[in-house]
Write a structure and sequence with these properties.
The chain is of the alpha/beta class. 61% of the residues lie in helices and 8% in strands. Among the domains are: 126 residues, no CATH class; 78 residues; 126 residues, Rossmann fold (3-Layer(aba) Sandwich); 163 residues, 2-Layer Sandwich (Beta-Lactamase), CATH 3.30.450. α9 runs antiparallel to α12. It is a multi-pass membrane protein.
Length: 795
């Protein structure tokens, strides 16, 4: 990378030089624009063929689940497709007959409404008649127009009249002229039906061809097709439910009001809502017009208008958010932009197809790295994560917005979770940019904004029972002001654990400064460092603290130390007692250090409220008799293979002990002597008791960073560094035990993987109880309030 001279203003401002290779980037950008233009041109030119194909694919998405269900119950695919299409035709035909009868009835009654319409129009014209402000001006314009017309007429010379006689038209040409407008939509409908039949018939072959076209990674292509199919099918189903939930109340309401043809207008309202934005407005015109024509007064019109407005409010604000949720994953802005784009390309049908087509583009952007910009543009997920959003608002000197984002995050989790997952990450980014990009103005904005944000958080979210007495923990920033901000977060978080803590200002580490800390009665001092290599400063600070305050235990918060470096160091290297890397770990470590019991209280999970009933349910399964070992071992082996971990175990916990009732491989440990040969451990040392107590999933990316597991006997015996467990529960909700994964090295675990592990746990529960069991909640909270313990350690 080219270097800027030290005299350059950009060098002093911390601006990096532009990367090399700008020309190839511009070439790729121009090529992308050209390809996009060609694609849009092809979509417009080929719309006569592409529109029927797109409509057929959309209908196939809606009908495919029915065909698949029939095939599963033993019907041949050809017969299943024919049965589904015939059913659809019969339903549409029956609805057409019903609506046709309604239309005929209305046509017969329309002449009787002429007098009502004439009377209302006459009354309106009389009310609007009378001298107005513009009457004089309008008379002047009329007079001028007459004079100009007369002048032109006088000046024109009479011309001989020429009459063009058209050639005679044959009966065949007349028939073609009449039939052509009707034949074109019929031909298009026939093409759509043929496409639908072929797509449903050769569904698997079509899927294979799409997989071949996508090419590359078969896993990614499979995920893309599954996601597109599920999103579009779910959208169509929800759209149908929304429209039916709108059309039926509309028909019943019109019937109560007395508007003729109420079945017709309810059905029309349901169908027209398939057209986004304009459909509901168009469907409202007909019942309003008929109410105007039927009732001599205005009462029926007002009641009909009120009915439509109430149904629109309920549908738009209650039913649609409830049913749709995140069924499409598209943002509101992208939906409107897509509707405009596809309508411009393909007309009214493009408006109907806009949402499914845009969903397909979103899925492509989600699964193909080359098109990832589509997910950013179209997706409903925030483009920036919460730490980045807060950091950017602070840089923009918008502390109020940063506080609002923080409040939204806390409302979804808790204060301590916010500090652990978001607050420290914001400070980490501030630290990374401090000397590379940030100007003095940026640093001042961030410092002032963080002060305001933490003051608001302490005021708006006080702990339920504020700790009293002298502080047991003192938190001190190691070097920069940003280190001290982390100490403020920790002090606030410890207050929720009932621990009195204070934050002391950072300063130059001298003998006089250490003396002024005043640590009488303090048991733990916490030192905060965001430096990637704080070895010298931290070691010097710890040495001076040991010399002046020998009875105080020291905890180092190394928020930004690389993971490789963390594996190589120990707290003793700095002269400290513990090293932590996250707010949650700091809280748990401090709670553990202040606990003086033989068995650390933090390692003992509280028994659930239904513990007695839970143990009875466990005994009723007879699984502790060991007769299901072979089957449960196979399920544990499957879990280990699926998640590619060294071993997995299935545990059951009664009132006194934990039993390993299934394992993917032989593990060391104390075993039962009754012939079942199961590993057992006391309940206060149970590896899965935290999962059983909470009834929720627990993921610990690194057990060395979690005091509940770092000193656990089984964790040390099995030499594991990763733990993930989900409850195994009966259909009645009693947690029998847990299915857990164990790895010898730290690893990450996504929410989708937690959900999949929950499905395997449901299979385990079904095998134990003999009843169909549901998977536990995929998003779960541990004792610390978060599914995972630690903040990520940056590379």
């Amino acid at each position: 990378m080219p270097q800027l001279p030290e005299t350059s203003p950009d060098y002093r401002a911390g601006v990096e030089p532009p990367p090399a290779g700008g020309a190839p980037d511009m070439v790729r950008f121009a090529a992308g624009l050209l390809i996009t233009a060609l694609l849009i041109t092809g979509l417009y030119v080929g719309r006569e063929v592409l529109i029927p194909l797109a409509v057929a694919v959309l209908i196939s998405f809606a009908l495919s689940p029915l065909v698949s269900w029939l095939v599963k119950v033993g019907v041949k695919r050809v017969l299943a497709v024919i049965m589904v299409l015939l059913t659809v035709f019969l339903l549409m035909g029956g609805l057409g007959v019903l609506l046709g009868s309604q239309l005929r009835s209305l046509a017969q009654e329309l002449p009787t409404y002429q007098e009502t319409i004439r009377e209302k129009v006459s009354n309106l014209s009389q009310q609007m008649r009378g001298p107005g402000i513009l009457d004089g001006a309008m008379k002047t314009v009329d007079t001028l127009q007459k004079e100009v017309g007369q002048t032109v007429k006088d000046e024109e010379e009479p011309l001989p009249k020429v009459q063009v006689v058209p050639p005679p038209v044959s009966p065949i040409e007349t028939a073609i002229a009449w039939l052509a407008p009707a034949l074109e939509p019929l031909a298009t409908a026939g093409i759509v039906i043929v496409f639908v039949f072929l797509i449903l018939l050769d569904n698997s072959d079509l899927r294979d061809r799409l997989l071949r076209i996508l090419g590359g990674n078969l896993h990614r292509a499979t995920d893309a097709l599954e996601e597109a199919g599920s999103r579009i099918s779910r959208y169509l189903l929800m759209q149908l439910l929304v429209n039916v939930s709108y059309g039926i109340p509309m028909a019943l309401g019109l019937w109560l009001i007395g508007v003729p043809g109420w079945i017709l207008w309810g059905s029309l309202a349901a169908v027209m809502r398939f057209i986004p934005y304009v459909g509901p407005m168009l469907s409202a015109i007909f019942p309003l017009s008929l109410a105007f024509a039927v009732d001599p007064s205005w009462e029926m019109v007002l009641w009909t208008l009120a009915l439509i407005l109430v149904l629109e409010l309920i549908s738009n604000n209650i039913i649609e958010p409830l049913l749709y949720g995140t069924s499409t994953g598209l943002s509101a802005l992208s939906l409107i932009a897509a509707a405009t784009f596809w309508t411009a390309l393909w007309g009214p049908l493009g408006l109907i197809l806009s949402t499914p087509l845009t969903v397909c583009l979103l899925v492509l952007g989600r699964n193909l790295p080359q098109l990832s910009f589509l997910e950013t543009i179209l997706g409903s997920a925030p483009a920036l994560d919460p730490p980045t959003r807060i950091y950017q608002r602070l840089l923009a000197d918008d502390a109020d917005e940063a506080i609002a984002i923080s409040g939204a995050e806390i409302a979804a989790t808790s204060v301590t979770d916010f500090y652990n997952d978001t607050g420290i990450e914001v400070l980490r980014r501030v630290s990374d940019d401090f000397s590379r990009y940030a100007r003095a103005e940026h640093r001042l904005r961030v410092a002032n904004g963080m002060d305001l944000m933490l003051d608001d958080l302490r005021e708006d979210y006080p702990p339920p029972s504020p700790p009293t007495g002298s502080p047991l923990v003192v938190a001190v920033g190691g070097r920069w002001e940003i280190d001290a901000v982390a100490c403020e977060m920790l002090a606030h978080a410890l207050a929720f654990d009932g621990i009195a803590a204070e934050q002391r200002p950072a300063g130059v580490v001298t003998t006089r400064y250490v003396e002024k800390l005043g640590l009488e009665g303090v048991e733990i001092i916490f030192l905060s460092y965001f430096s990637a290599d704080p070895s010298g400063a931290a070691r010097n600070f710890c040495r001076r603290l040991r010399h002046r305050w020998p009875g105080v235990r020291i905890v180092l918060g190394l928020w930004n130390i690389p993971a490789t470096r963390l594996e190589e160091i120990a707290a003793e290297d700095f002269g400290a007692d513990e090293i932590v890397t996250s707010i949650t770990e700091a809280r748990l470590r401090i709670v553990r250090m202040l606990d003086t019991g033989d068995v650390p209280e933090i390692q003992i999970a509280q028994a659930p409220e239904d513990d007695t009933d839970r143990v009875i349910a466990l005994r009723d399964t007879s699984v502790l008799q060991g007769h299901m070992r072979e089957e449960l071992d196979a399920l544990a082996k499957r879990a280990a293979d699926v998640f590619d971990v060294p071993f997995a175990v299935i545990s059951a916990i009664d009132e006194e002990q934990e039993y390993i009732i299934g394992q993917s491989m032989e593990l060391p440990g104390r075993r039962t002597r009754d012939g079942t040969d199961m590993i057992t451990m006391p309940r206060n040392e149970a590896i899965c008791d935290h999962v059983v107590a909470a009834g929720e999933a627990l993921v610990v990316p690194d057990t060395d960073r979690d005091p509940r597991f770092s000193d656990h006997p089984a964790i040390r015996l099995w030499q594991t560094r990763f733990y993930a467990g989900v409850p195994v529960q009966t259909p009645d909700g009693h947690v029998l035990g847990a299915l857990c994964l164990l790895d010898t090295s730290p690893r990450k675990f996504t929410e989708d993987e937690v959900e999949l592990l929950g499905e395997l746990a449901a299979d385990v529960a079904s095998a134990i109880t003999g009843e169909e069991a549901d998977a536990p909640e995929p998003i779960s909270r541990s004792e610390s309030g978060t599914m995972t313990l630690g903040q990520r350690v940056p590379d």
